[in-house]
Design a protein that fits this description.
Blueprint: H1 11-14, H2 22-35, H3 41-45, H4 49-57, E1 61-63, E2 78-83, E3 86-95, E4 98-102, E5 117-121, E6 134-135, E7 139-140, E8 146-147, E9 152-158, H5 160-178
Antiparallel strand pairs: 1-9, 2-3, 2-9, 3-4, 4-5, 6-9, 7-8
Helix pairs in contact: 2-5
Length: about 180
């Protein structure tokens, strides 16, 4: 199953655990895409999700803001937001200009849903002045306007095939370690 076909907003993740983090949702979708079924909590509970996403950073291609258009990405890819060497957020590219995921409350102009699913156009990313990084410190005022803090992340795009290979290897290594 292609990653873009995984049931990104399905209710089954809502029953999975609390809170639902961006990395957990991305891992669930990678599992579903790779194995054709939604994972059990036991299958993913032993994974270090931050470590998994940090490891995937090396597979990624750094993204910058295009000169005269919005960022266009390869559907099915995983987009990682890297800050000081750590993947602080992850999303799945649903369409070339739409990112979907969970807990996307600090990376887009419009509000995401705390521990919930949301979809955002890439035009909602708040780039720095030179277009190299995006804010990951967005909060919203009482009127709903985005307010940024000085916390900017680099974006890394991991193609679906690479993300799935890395994920499958991490699961296999985890299963071997656990016996």
């Amino acid at each position: 199953m292609a990653l873009v076909c995984a049931n990104l907003s399905s209710d089954n993740i809502a029953d999975f655990t609390d809170p639902i983090t961006a990395h957990l949702a991305t891992a669930c979708r990678l599992y579903e895409a790779e194995y054709g079924e939604f994972p059990t909590i036991e299958k993913l509970a032993r994974l270090n999700l931050t470590g998994l996403m940090n490891g995937m950073l090396a597979q990624g291609e750094r993204q910058s803001k295009p000169f005269c258009r919005d960022l266009v990405l390869l559907p099915g890819s995983v987009l990682l937001f890297e800050f000081e060497g750590e993947a602080v957020h992850s999303s799945v590219v649903k369409r070339c200009d739409v990112l979907v995921g969970y807990d996307q409350t600090t990376v887009f102009r419009s509000r995401g849903v705390v521990h919930g699913y949301s979809a955002h156009n890439t035009s909602e990313l708040l780039w720095d002045r030179v277009g190299r990084t995006v804010s990951t410190g967005i909060t919203h005022s009482a009127s709903g306007e985005p307010v940024t803090r000085d916390r900017y992340a680099q974006l890394f795009l991991v193609r679906e095939a690479d993300a799935r290979v890395f994920f499958r290897a991490a699961l296999a290594a985890n299963d071997e370690h656990d016996g």
